[in-house]
Structures are given as C-alpha cells and as structure tokens.
Amino acid sequence: MNISTRTLGSTAPLTVSSLGLGCMGMSEFYGTPAHADGIATIHRALDLGVTFLDTADMYGPFTNEQLVGEAIRDQREQVQLATKFGNERLPDGTRVGVNGRPDYVRAACDASLQRLGVDHIDLYYQHRVDPDVPIEETVGAMAELVQAGKVRFLGLSEAAASTIRRAHAVHPITALQTEYSLFTRDLEADILPTLRELGIGLVPYSPLGRGLLTGAITRESLPSGDSRSSGYFPRFQGENLDANLALVDAVRAIADQLDATPGQLALAWVLAQGEDVVPVPGTKRVRYLEENVAAAALTLSEEHLAALARAVPADAVAGERYGDMSSIDSTS
C-alpha cells in the first residue's frame, strides 16, 4: 500500500507523506547500529510512499546523515528531507551542549549538506532551544539559509509556546517536532493550540513511546547498550516500567478488537489527532516499517478513541520522559 500525504504548516506549507521515518536508531542509541538494514529500510519506505525522512547531525554523531544521504542518492527528488542542528557533539560523541549561535547555524547547515550529499534541506530544525541565544537571532540565521537556497522550510524542536511565537514572527515556522504519543500528552494544553493558531504543523517523534507502545518491550528485552535501559529514560525503570507495561496491556486489549498490534493502534491514535500531524516513528527494520505503514490504514471510531482515553488517561504514564528535562524549553 502507498500512503497518502499531509501538509505541514499553512503560512509556509510543506507537503509530506502522512507518516515519516525516523532514522536515528539506524546509527545510535537503540542497540547496535545497523547500516545495511537502515539503507534497506529507507529504500522500502520510499517504495511504500514514506518519503518524509528525519535525521539530525548529532545522530551517530554525524554518521546518520551520511547513511541517509547514501540511501537517497538516486531518489532525492521524491524525498522530503528533514535534519536538525543545535545539539553540538564532537566526533568522539562527547556532548558539547546546545548551540543556537548564528555562526554555528550556518556552519552546521553546510556540514549537514556535505554529509547528506544534497544541495538543499527541505525542513531544517533547531533541535533544542539555546537558552543563552535569543530565538530571534537563531531563526534569523536560519532564515538566511532559506534566502540562500540551502534550506526550504524551517522547524523547531521541543520549543515552548512563547518561543514558537517569537520565532514565527521572524520567519514562518512550518513545523514543530516534539514528543507526542498516548504516553506523552503535555503539549495539548498550550503548545498544540498555539501551533494551530499560527498555522504550524506538528511532527511527533517517539509516537510509539520509544517502543513501549509496540508491546514488544519487557523488563528483559532491551539489548546491551540500549540507552532506554539507562536512568536517562525513567519510564523504563523499575516500578515505572511495570505500571507502563500495564497500560500497554490495556492498549493491546483494544488493538485485539481491531485485529491490529498495540503499536499500530498507538500510531493510528496519533494520526487521528489532526491532518496537520505527521508522526515520524523510528525503526531500522523493514518488518517494523511495514507494520507502522499499515497503521495509516487503520480508521478509529469515536468509540475506539473513547476506549483509549479510558485505558490511557492523559496523565497515566509513570515517570518523566527524560531523566534530565533541563534541555526542554519551558519558557512561560
């Protein structure tokens, strides 16, 4: 099946596949990197109409952009390519910090273009908001990249509502990427209404709760080296994990009624939140990609949505989404 398209943003609209592909895990964080599998998964995604690809310079670091560039080399014209800057890392992986300085924005973009092997980026995000640099300065530098033809559209990631407003006043913002799923609903109070008021699309990352909502994760299932088994992700620890797996069981019970997997139901729920919402579930395996794509054909009735609301109340998940939330913009 080939999936449909959706349009992110109305002031600066970008049409993309209704489901994207997060490429991060092909290179880092979730177990062993899988270069060949990643290439095969991207090629299969394009075959299925999943043409909205998401990467970032920090993934690897740097190697994920190279992988994506290799995979799309002969198919660039059919891809909506998104990457990010701002989480500065050294080649050995050392984290330097968040950097939104204009000179860094320009240098990071040029480096990403080189690694990707392309002459422009379709959607360029600030990965995290730099608290030490006014957002107007960062977005001003990003706007220069649009004027230079290096970038087509601008995005933010994990930005607070007031930051989004200030950024959008400098140059139209096409999309906000932030965590959103049945397990992460905090943006619904303030951020999502702001996006809709301004005509900005939403790109949820981790729409499957970092895999929890697939139903495939147990206390014993995470491989050695998987960052989810560390304290960095409290939802996967101890009693939090037990409580969250119980929520997954409740999602599975509803999914069984639809002859779907828990992950497909969770993705269908995100897709049902609006035509301006385009989730980017990540995977490095073709079979999981195909499972995710099938979720786009799953139509949820009001009864199903109500059942999910009862099964997973908005504040039901146990644990913060990050052990250290200091990098998340919380400007009031």
TrEMBL record:
One of its GO terms (cellular component) is cytoplasm. InterPro entries: Aldo-Keto_reductase, NAD(P)_OxRdtase_dom_sf, NADP_OxRdtase_dom. This is Predicted oxidoreductase. Pfam families: Aldo_ket_red. It comes from Ruania alba. PANTHER family: AFLATOXIN B1 ALDEHYDE REDUCTASE, ALDO-KETO REDUCTASE YAKC [NADP(+)]. The keyword Oxidoreductase applies. Residues 19-310 form the NADP-dependent oxidoreductase domain. One of its GO terms (molecular function) is oxidoreductase activity. SUPFAM superfamilies: NAD(P)-linked oxidoreductase. Keywords: Oxidoreductase.
